[in-house]
Amino acid sequence: MPALYATAREDGVITVVDLSGRIALGEGSALLRTTIRDLLDRGRNKIILNLGDVTYIDSSGIGELVSGFTAVRNRQGELKLLHLTKKVHDLLQITKLFTVFDVYSDEGTAVRSFL
Amino acid sequence: MAPETKHLEVTLETHVESVNLAEEMCLRVAEAAGFSEEECYRIGMSVREGVINAFHYGNQEKPDKKIHLGIDLTTDKMVIHVMDEGKGFLLADVPDPLAEENLLSTSGRGIFLMRTFMDEFKVVPGRTGGAEIIMSKKLPLPGEPPNNRNDGASKSGAPHQEV
């Protein structure tokens, strides 16, 4: 089963993190945690997670998304989600987290939402 | 056990890798049993969550404890047993992850996902003293289109059935 890959791009004060693979118990969840923590340590607190190539999320991955959301908010920032696949969309919907996260299907709109 | 029932049982180490192993094993059985891709995803996710529960909450990640996985394939359903060597738990004591005050909790969604994705779900005291999760999924009917039963995601909040 493929691991998770994360690549960060900067657009002014906004950071877009392109994620691909599985956010699941083990390395996937750990990589997401360290990626967000490293960004926050560098003062980057306006973050968009691009989940377009994330093929799978389990309850550990969901917990890590929530943990990241709270950590960013505690640093007076915002964490938003972009390009949810159907499976991720359905998971966030049944866990009621769709109402918690700001979710976008277009990167330009997601970036402008911070301004 | 009925003579038509096929049974598979494995003992897994209390290790993160056991989660992937259990998921892959059950996926192989589910695919061979004729479940659709969507149903396989739900079965795989449920097994994964059951083993995560045994690994983390039941066995408390202690390497000297084991996780016992059983799969029964009967004439009409696939039944999965996940047993840990912990102290057991009551479903009534598990917080509702959909409650407003728990929405930002970083854990506690595994049981909910198993209940949502499987047809039947229950937790009983296991023979090893810990908890035994028993969950099942009805086999697809012969000739049934592969994606004819993709109703799991809309089952949120629906009362679960006992096995």
Task: Walk me through the topology.
The complex is a heterodimer of chains A (115) and B (163).
Chain A: E1 5-11, E2 14-23, H1 27-41, E3 46-57, H2 59-74, E4 78-82, H3 86-94, E5 102-104, H4 107-112
Parallel strand pairs in A: 2-3, 3-4, 4-5
Antiparallel strand pairs in A: 1-2
Helix pairs in contact in A: 1-2
Chain B: E1 6-13, H1 16-32, H2 37-58, E2 66-73, E3 77-83, H3 110-117, E4 120-125, E5 131-138
Antiparallel strand pairs in B: 1-2, 2-3, 3-5, 4-5
Helix pairs in contact in B: 1-2, 2-3
Strand content of chain A: 25-35%
How many H/I helical runs of chain B? 3
Q: Mean pLDDT of chain B, rounded to whole units?
A: 89
Low-confidence stretches of chain A: none
Largest interface chains and counts: A-B, 24 and 24 residues
**Helical/strand content category of chain B:** alpha+beta
**C-alpha Rg of chain A (nearest Å):** 13 Å
From the alpha carbons, calculate the radius of gyration of chain B and give it in angstroms: 15 Å
Strand proportion of chain B: 15-25%
Determine the N-to-C terminus distance of chain A.
Answer: 38 Å
Average pLDDT reading of chain A? 96
Helix content of chain B: 25-40%
Verbal overview:
The complex is a heterodimer of chains A (about 120) and B (about 160). Chain A has about 120 residues and is of the alpha/beta class. Chain A has helices at about 25-40, 60-75, 85-95, 105-110; strands spanning about 5-10, 15-25, 45-55, 80, 100-105. In chain A, strand 4 (about 80), helix 3 (about 85-95) and strand 5 (about 100-105) form a beta-alpha-beta unit. Chain A is globular. The mean pLDDT of chain A is about 95. Chain B has 3 helices and 5 strands; from the N terminus they run E-H-H-E-E-H-E-E. Chain B has helices at about 15-30, 35-60, 110-115, and strands spanning about 5-15, 65-75, 75-85, 120-125, 130-140. In chain B, helix 1 (about 15-30) runs antiparallel to helix 2 (about 35-60) and helix 2 (about 35-60) runs antiparallel to helix 3. The interface of A and B includes residues 63, 70 and 97 of A.
